[in-house]
Every structure is written in C-alpha cells, then in structure tokens.
Amino acid sequence: MSSSPRSRAARALSLLAGTSLLAAGCTVPGGVGGGSSEPGSGSSQGSSSGGHDSGGSASPATSMPTHAPDLAKYYTQKVSWERCGRFQCAELMVPVDYDKPEGATIKLALKRQRSTSGQRAGSLVLNPGGPGASGVDMVDWFAPALAGNVQRRFDVVGFDPRGVARSSPVTCLDDKQMDNYLGGDPTPDDAAERDKVMAANKTFADACLAKTGDLLRHVSTVEAAKDMDVLRGVLGDAKLNYFGASYGTFLGATYADLFPTHVGQMVLDGVIDPAQDGKQSALGQATGFERATRAYAQHCVDTGSCPIGSTVDEAMTGLSDLLKQIDANPLPAPGVGTGTLTEGWASLGVAMPMYSDQLWSDLDQALRSAKKGDGSGLMRLAMQYADRQDDGSYKGNMLQAINAVNCLDRPVAGDADRYAADEKDFTKVAPVWGRFMAWGDAVCGVWPVKATGVAKPVKAPGSGPILVLGTTRDPATPYENSVALAKELEHGVLLTRDGDGHTAYQQGNNCVDRAVDDYLVKGKVPTSGAKC
After folding, report:
1. Confidence (pTM)
2. For 121-140, how does the pLDDT look when each residue is reduced to its tens digit (9 = 90+)?
3. Cβ neighbours around 521 below 10 Å, total
C-alpha cells in the first residue's frame, strides 16, 4: 500500500533504535496515530468480534521447547481476545524470571488485526524498536499499511515487551524530572560538568530501581525473546513469522539464535549488530549520524538559502558552532516545551530529522529561527523526538525503558574519565556528533543492576532464510550493521536500499516493498546483496 511522504516520515520516526538514551540513537516514541494509553484504541479494517479466539493451527503443547517442561503452563495458557476499537486485544502471562517459572508473573499487552481473508496462514509478530517502543501501538499504523496480500495471509500481532508501555512499564522519573534530564548538558567541558553529568545519570538509574523494583533485573532482550516464543506457542504457530525494525532486529536476531528451528519468515530492517559492544555500537551510530547530517547539509546548501553555511563543510561547522553557542547561551523558546532551548534539547531537535528526509525542510526553518535567537522550532522537533506533549507529559516510557534494556544487554564499565577519553575516538569519525555520542552510555556506567548479556555474533544455525534490510545513509542503525548481520547469520540474506533516513520497508521504495511482501507471502527470497 502506498503512503504519502509525510506519513512515511512519521512511520520512520516510529521505528526506534538506541544504544542508550543520550546517544540519540532512538527516534520518536509513538509514531503515526500513536494510540492511547489503553489497549482498546486504534482504527483499522479487518476486525472481528471479542471473546476467546486462539486463531491458531499448531498445538501450543507440541510447539513448546522440549527442554522447558516447567514452562508448559505458559505455552498452553488460553488468552481471551476482546474487541478494542477495530482490533482485538488480550494479555499474555509470562514468568518474571525464566529460571524460576513457578515464581512471580507479569502480563504482556497484545493487539492484533485479524487476517482479512479469514483463512490465516499464521501470525506476523511485530516489534518497532527502541528498546521501549510499543508493539501494541505499532499495529494501529503498520498493519493497515501492509499490502493487501500480506493482510490476507496473516493475523498481524503486536505486543508491548516486558517493561514497556502497558506491560509492567519501567518507571524512573516524573515529567518535570525528565525535562531536566533531557535538557541537561550532553557534552561536558570540564571536570565539574562531567561530575554533574554522572550525578544526573546516577539519580536516573537509582530512581529506576526504586520505582521499578526487581523487574528491572528482568527486562533483557533474551527474556523478551523467550516471551516471544511463548507468544508464538499461544498463537498456535509452529514457527514465528516476524517483522522487527531497528532495535527489533536485535530482538529478532536474539530469538533466531535461541530458537532457530522456530523461525518462519523473518524480516530484520535497520540492524543493531549483536556482535558489537556498547562503545562499538555508539561509534557506529556516531558515524551514521555524521553521514546522515552531511546528506542533510548537502540538501540545505542546495536550497540556496542554507542558514548554517554555503558549502557542506561550512554547514557542518556552522551546525557544530550553533550547538556550542546554545550550550553557552540557551535560547528562548516562548510557549514551547520548557520554554528554554538548551544544548541537550537542541541536539535532540537536530537528531530528529535525521530519521527522515521528509523533515529536512522543518529543520531548515528551525535552524534559521535559531540563528535569529528563537529556539522554538528546534524545541518542537525535540519534543517530537522525546514524545513530550504540549501539557508537559510524556507519552509512553520509551526514554526510560531504553536504558533499562540496554544496560542489561551490554556490560559497560565506565566513569567520567573513560567517557572523556573516548571523545577523541568519537570526534575522529564524527566531528559534529562525536562528543554527544561518547557520553551516550554513561548511565550504564552507574546502573544499579548487573548486566546479563554479552556482545556476540548470532548464527541461528538451522533456521530458514532471514531477510536483512539495510539503508545506505541510515543514521541510527548504520548500513554496515546490516552487512555484518547478514554475514553472521547462517542463512542471512541482505537487501540494500540506497537512500536516506531510518529503515527501508514502507519508505516509498517499491523495489524494497515488493521484495519484502513476496518473501512474506510467497517465501520468495531475494538474491543476497540485491540493491534497490
């Protein structure tokens, strides 16, 4: 199904990826239409009545991993699907700790659009990224935009992962505290400022543990992948058909490595490379954002009235200088957001349009206004990035959950001196974004819960072909990551989109969209290395 440039921009900004909160490696939570705080919102065709309906064909008991008999009650549970708007919603019970399946449990929010043909071939499970983005909300805008043959073949199912949105959300700061945290100095210039950054991160981290409790130890990607296998079994699917974007690729790759024989059609769009540690991932994002910003700078210069320079190099320097000026002297943003544009907010405002070239004209105007002393335009873009509402509230908990998941997934041993030393490595590859990104995982250096994950390549031996999508000038998930993952996977197939913005599917490239749809519906696998 085709979509307008503006809707494609919003869709791209709903697909999230991040190494940490301050690494600007995430996009706007929510996305097109967003959805309310209740599972019962949304609009689409393809609804059906409420009440229990497993909608599956495989036996959950026989599709349960043979090595996990203690999990039988989870795989064989019956969920009750109830009407919610034009969709159906339910809750899935999973153990908090998979090593203690008889212990505490939590419920995960689910939403699905039924197959429009009434003759489903299975489910297509979604994850929009983050970590911390809502798969329940993703159904609202993603499912109706799928090609008709995809909607006919699959029930389209979204879920909020553990710790996210409606699924026992990680909670850390209140709205005012989030304002201060996001508006803080992201590029400390001296020891006093560095200590202040680390103190702010420790306050954030300690608040997460105090308010979230023991669940904070159990929101890792491995645990979310195990939840997905329970979901697969409960849906009655012998294999998991899956579309994951951005961080959703990390979740999907983790699932494939844990349950390779349960992998059906799997699309991983805009890759986080599981083999990279935290610093490597942040360096990659710094490179990606720098590349994307240069592409924006070329556009800006080509308009003939670029407010930050008349050549690409001048524009890059002009942007860096503007951020430094705002660091020294924050700009007023009358009636918008907090009312004051700090360097922290300005950086988020510039990062926002890197996810979609459809927003570049908005950045042109915002920078033009900022040069004249008005920070309102950049503040509005930053608010979109943070999903901050006009009333000062934040929609969802993405900017809190992102740290909780990432700090469990990758061990980080860091202090202020390490991050300051890292700035040299980062500024070599990213003069504009390097210092900002170097401090991106500082919160993990003071995280109160020990990491459980390690960086390692995934192979998923025994799976079928897994389709890996990469976009050449993707800021948040650099193209090189997609190339690497396709090679790591035993049966990875790379499809390249030559373009700007974050992710490849449903971004107006018919070549990509046809290839993905044919793979999902017909099992037709593109030639690995094909370019669109």
Report:
1. 0.90
2. 999 999 999 999 999 999 99
3. 17
